[in-house]
Amino acid sequence: MLFLSSRAGPGPAGATAGAVAHRAAQALAGGGLQELVWNHSRIDVSVGLAGGVLLALPVGRHGVDGAHSFRALAAASRRRPEPLLAALEPLLLEPLPEPAEAVGVEA
């Protein structure tokens, strides 16, 4: 199982991120990925379409609200792991940028 979890703030960096990507690549290359789950419940149970807030779509329910199992992607990766690994690589290697600090303006 490859379990991806959303969280606020930066993700692992440096050697930790590289180790995570390496383990994921090994699992995918071996053809043994049985399940791919994304858990977004720490942030919200829905995501905004195109990054917006006007149209929020539920992530799903896989054990908890806000989690989704990508069974078809896991099944496809057992035949051809390279496309899934290429799609996941930015998530596994690069930590998210630090959020910009709010700037207060007094009138």
3D structure, described in words:
The chain is an alpha+beta fold and 107 residues long. It has one domain (2-93). It is 36% helix and 16% strand. The chain has a 3-stranded mixed β-sheet. It has a two-stranded antiparallel ribbon with strand order 3-4. The longest helix is centred in the N-terminal third of the chain and has 16 residues, at 14-29. The model has no long low-confidence stretch (mean pLDDT 76).
Task: Please sum up the structure shown.
By secondary structure, the protein is α+β, with helices and mostly antiparallel strands. 36% of the residues lie in helices and 16% in strands.
| Oligomer kind | single chain
Segments where pLDDT lies below 50 for 5+ residues? none
Order of helices and strands: EHEEEEHH
- The total of beta strands comes to 5
Report on the biggest sheet.
3 strands, mixed
Helix content: 25-40%
Mean pLDDT: 76
The outline comes out as: globular
How widely separated are the two ends? 53 Å
Number of helical regions: 3
Structural class: alpha+beta
In spatial order, strands of the major sheet run 1-2-5
Estimate the strand proportion.
15-25%
Computed Rg: 16 Å
Record keyword descriptors for this entry.
107 residues; alpha+beta; three-stranded mixed beta sheet; two-stranded antiparallel sheet; globular
Lay out the secondary structure:
Blueprint: E1 2-5, H1 14-29, E2 36-39, E3 46-48, E4 56-58, E5 67-69, H2 71-79, H3 81-93
Parallel strand pairs: 1-2
Antiparallel strand pairs: 2-5, 3-4
Helix pairs in contact: 1-3, 2-3
